[in-house]
Amino acid sequence: MKFVLLALLFSLNLHLVRSLVECDASGCELKNYLRGPWPDRRPCKITKAFFPTNEAELLDAVAYAVKSKQKIKVVSREAHTMTKFACPNSGSDTGGVVISTASFNSNSSVVVDKSSMTVSTPPGIMLGELIDLLAMQGVTLHQTIAWDGVSPAGMVSAGAHGSSLWGRGGGTYEYLVSMRIVVPASKNEGFAKVVTVAEGSDLDLFHAARISLGVLGAISHLTFSVQPMTKRSVTLSVADDASLEDDFLRLAREHEFGEVLWYSSQKKYVWRTDDRAPLSVPGNGALIRVPFLPVQAAAARSSRLSQEAAETIGNSTFFCSAAKNTVNTITSTGGGFVNDEQQQRFSGFPVVGYFHKFQARGGCQYTYSNSTNLALPESERLVCGWDFRAHGQFWFHVSVSISISDVGNFIRDVKQLRDLSPERLCLLDTSIALQIRYLKASQAYLGPKTDAAQIEFITFRDRRPGEPQTYEDVAEEIEQLLLFKYNGKPHFGKNRPHAFQDIGRKTKNLSKFLSARRKLDPQGWFSSDWSDAVLGIRGSPVTAKDGCALEGLCVCSEARHCAPDKGYFCKPGLVYHEARVCSNRS
Q: Domain limits of the chain?
């Protein structure tokens, strides 16, 4: 193995991802994509980082780690899970190796085969770049996530998704055809080897690898099915939510890529009618995903400070006004949709454009490798709006899939909670509201067992550890409705740590996944304390200590898990009485 060459590769490419993997003479530290604290508030210190550019170099990196008896995690250029799957250790030590695919991203390695309607791609290319390359060949991916800053390998490993109940559904992993994975090997095999898993061969390995959490090995190559380029036609409509529990499924069955934004505090929902259109239909529209665009650091800070000021005094009027304004203007402003991408102009629905123009968009991630931008004074630099160092947004983030058959009852529960005090839900409605997207039942072992709705919300979280938010109890009760009353499966790339309890009951077949893990990585070099806890191997994703419920490390069972010194005690939920939430209500 060329370990000397590998060390040189490490030093030469360090600058490419300095924003997320920072190294000095004492070792390295991995940052998450928020550039802020990990959920447990512990840093991710590592022994060494590698930046391979091809499969041979990736093979060498894995071999080095296995020979050195170091835990291994693979990360992409800009987007790691906000959970700690990307860290090779628990945070209480500094062991382990991180392999970044930031430089394993050659455009020339993207190969479209129109006879089989597939694309082969390296693992580290940015999703937005891949989408644009495919469009030049007249094809598109079937499904993507919203942000273009992820890599294809990371996208499928975390079980990321779009939205659809048609065909194979909204899961990006449903359209995988094959993967090449570098896995640990014996000394005689050079400590690392490449295995291929494919749809038509060993189905146990393939169904395990489709959503792998990075614990099976390092993906070196992916092949997806693609489809001929077409167009899409999108309309946003606002409706009263009186019949949402009946409407949500009918709308999903009638429209291929539909989704719902439910502004529960306003008793309204926004329905996205989103369907294919022939290439002959006029239109050069697109979706401009504003939250993912670059923003000046000073503006990111100002926006966050306004929220902090309102939240500190419990100013529900501030948040209710913002939610009302969004609902009242979304159809007149376009909600990010434009009829003319060149002029960034919205003139009315429907918006018609090429298929890929409605997939992953954004671009803020490129500001961190732009030398001109980095040379600006700190307050003038462009950043992503969630940049913690710029005092950007910081979230209590929940994303959980529940069975389609349970969604109606969940909506009724939230309505009942809303009707007790509508203003207490306004804070949830100032970001993505309650977003409902759709997934089909999957054969992937860590995928959903049934057709499901992925329900997601983002709300305010204090930057300081152990600090409650004014409407903490509402967010926690809705989170626990999803996780416990409706046995929801948490998105592996999002959510607070306690959400990952009892994953075995919520996925397709955890035991078969663990069997595949033992076959590909019997010593667990690609696993960590955190992944072992989530997968039920040993340990627990729950940590009980003072303030743990506010940090998402536990569900409270006693006052000290909240903030009794600030008037927040552990109390039953208002609607879901089995819930235990941190509340300041009398």
A: 107-229
